[in-house]
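Box S2. Input/output pair 1.
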Amino acid sequence: MAFYEHVVVTRPDISPQQVDALVEDITKIVTEGNGKVGKTEYWGLRNLSYPIKKSRKAHYSLINIDAPGPVIHEIERRLRINEDVLRFLTVKVDALSEEPSPVIARKDRDERKRRDDDFGGGFGGFSDRPPRGDRPPREDRGDRPPRPPRDR
């Protein structure tokens, strides 16, 4: 059997529960075809790079699949028929990764940063910079000549 990463992009006006139901249908097709589903990730409602069928946003889902080729053809055939699916992409990979995808990892990192940067853990990523009180005033630093006054 081969390893595949499958991304499904669905319409924005359906609910996340309907997206989960679609992923469950795909999982059922894979298991009936003697395959296995590794991990599934719901990336959420995200902006599209360009409008697709007059939609500017879409629900994204990632599914790692270990299945034979005919199962993938059946999944793609059913997704072409489904009106809720805007796009899908199946990529054959050498090995399936069990760690979170870069999309999920970035979202977790952004949430941690937002939580830590609520004016307590630094501001704008410059938390390693010493506070102003530990440095000499600009005029007394001596590493460059003072600026001449501006003519306005």
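Box S3. Input/output pair 2.
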Amino acid sequence: MTARQQWTIVLGIVALLAVLLAAATHFLGDELFPVSVGSAAPPMEATTLDGAPRAKTLRDYEGKVVLLNVWATWCEPCKVEMPSIERLHREFGPRGLAVVAVSVDDAGMEKRITTFARELGITFEVLHDPTRTTSRNYQITGYPETFIIGREGTIRKKVIGAADWSSAANRALIRELLGPVTASR
């Protein structure tokens, strides 16, 4: 066997391994790269519900601690936890907490989403992702699912299901991530 034939075989094996690795990453991506505490926050893209809808991403919240809540209007546990998220937002929003609630309701449900938010007295940002891209990127297994993302873009907490976000433990975590309050002079 000549050197050229040997190199052809080696390159063929390397190419085959590359194809297998690409296929494994595509088909087993969730298992190979789970979204969990300590991992970098995946991309998020959803649309505002105001008069001139525009796309928003995590970059829009750069430098802030983010509470990313993925929910739907038809989800009863989502409705139950929203008031505690609102309390957390009112307490820590002025200190740099960005609360972003991404609805996965179907396209055309914008009015229902805004009515839902208004009825619950929600003042934090509510976005819409009818394509559920955020759900796929964050490997959502049910609704609601919430992620606390540190200023550096790392997931610091993940909660599947409804939680009391105004509890002492959750408030302490947010307080820690935001850092000390500086006194104004």
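Caption for Box S3: Residues 157 and 173 are 9 Å apart (CA to CA). The first helix runs from residue 3 to 32.
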